[in-house]
Amino acid sequence: MAEIHWSIQIPARVFLLGPSHHHYTPNCALSSATFYETPLGDLLVDLEVIEQLKATQKFEKMDIGVDEAEHSMEMHLPYLAKVFER
């Protein structure tokens, strides 16, 4: 299994999507965070892509407090930090 993990090509960008358990919205929301802190290091948010998505006017801005309260993606973040450290 580890050999499969290490043979995977690392993507340049990952879009992590999750539900909102604390704030109802009928739309997709973009994080206000500039990075996500994990036990394995910080993951930077691609702010250029965030700005491009905002420009479409199809997304709403997620309040940082809502983002911090959401737990749906927190188990994925350390794995991504490990993958991108290679």
Automatic annotation (TrEMBL):
This is AmmeMemoRadiSam system protein B. It holds the Pfam family Memo. InterPro entries: MEMO1_fam. It comes from Sphenostylis stenocarpa. It comes from the Eukaryota. Belongs to the MEMO1 family. Transmembrane segments: none annotated.
